[in-house]
Amino acid sequence: MLATPDDLLAFDREHLWHPYTSMTSPTPVRLVTGASGVRLTLGDGSVLVDAMSSWWAAIHGYNHPVLNAALTAQAQDFSHVMFGGLTHEPAIRLAEKLVSLAPRGLEKVFLADSGSVSVEVALKMTLQHQRGQGRAERTRMLTVRGGYHGDTFGCMGVCDPVGGMHSMFASMLPEHVFAPRPPAAAAAAAAVEEWAAAFTALAREHAATLAGIIVEPLLQGAGGMHAYPAACLQVMRDVADELDLVLVFDEIATGFGRTGTLWAADAAGVSPDIMCVGKALTGGYLSLAAVLTTAEIGRGISASESGVLMHGPTYMGNPLACAVALASLELLTSGDWAARVPALEAGLAVGLAGARDLPGVHDVRTLGAVGVVQLDHPVDTVKAADAAAELGVWLRPFRDLIYTMPPYITDDDDLARICAAVTRAAEVA
């Protein structure tokens, strides 16, 4: 019988595997017993301001009455039915909402069960579309260095093969084509032009075998929190059009306002052919993702030899997840996110400015509701998280980055506390 918080943590340490954690020598974890607003209550009674939005998903905070009500109401009707041969109102209304919000032309919706799966589906769509166009030899993707698209095998293939987290699997993955990482967001126009020339030349060189282009638009997430100029997205669109490639935007981390526009694609006025969304889609309540495509892509897939899209997860279109996702999107679009995200960006810029002068700090940058302190060495993640917790903040650093993606409802006082914690973590890590 696991009677106390210590008992629970001891069992966890012995039996549970956490993300990117050793089983034989796991790093410490904290037991959460409650969450409300932007605060997590721990088993020892302490309370932490969540600076991570639970990996960028809980944009409305925790225990939100509107999302709770949507979840409860749907559970009283039915929690799940298979999506093969059946449909239901939550999925239909969610698709209607997504189409109304999406960049122009994206009007077909595939409901997946996680962000990684949505990228897998997008890759399949790209290949099937090319087959439907009679170009079965086009089987590779063009992407950029520094990217991250998930942990499953198709996703790993389009993550950075050298600097990414999956280099040990390189020999088992398809060999895709990797262009240079785009320049930093503040780069001069000449740097963007130089990158554009290299990207275009590489695409033309491999055009005969390329099926599509896949990138995280405007901000690379787990690959390094690297922000780049919106003009690069137009270059990708132009190259895709010139060479008949499918342009895929992975907006799983960047969508729903995180970078300052509803979609990162909006910063360049560019529409992809396929767009993946997830994370904040349900406000952090349940795992759900969606893949949106143009009608042209749909026709291409239908023209392939199978005649159908070859994917169908068991929990595809889960009614509970769809209901809470629709409620989350209604909250987002009826609220003040368009004013709140720039306010968070301004607060992060001011609050993190002092970290620039710390020893070992390589860079400090902000974009929308994202604040990053990059060190010139790997972070001691345990020491950094402990230092933040001493100031009442939950941070989860990785690689050489101490960063925050706070919930949109974070007020000025809590944002100042988060910035102080990020700075303190940078001092000790």
Structure description:
The protein is α/β, with parallel strands linked by helices and 429 residues long. The protein has 13 helices and 16 strands. A seven-stranded mixed β-sheet has the order 4-12-11-10-7-5-6, with helices on both faces. The radius of gyration is 22 Å and the shape is globular.
Q: What are the defining features of this structure?
A:
PyrdxlP-dep_Trfase; 429 residues; 13 helices; transferase; Aminotrans_3; 38% helix
Summarize the structure.
The protein is α/β, with parallel strands linked by helices.
Number of separate structural domains: 2
CATH-defined fold name of the largest domain: Aspartate Aminotransferase, domain 2
The tally of helices reads 13
β-strand number:
16
Report mean pLDDT, rounded to a whole number: 96
Largest sheet: 7 strands, mixed
Portion in helices: 25-40%
What is the C-level CATH assignment of the largest domain?
Alpha Beta
Residue stretches low in confidence (pLDDT < 50, at least 5 long) are: none
N/C terminus separation: 38 Å
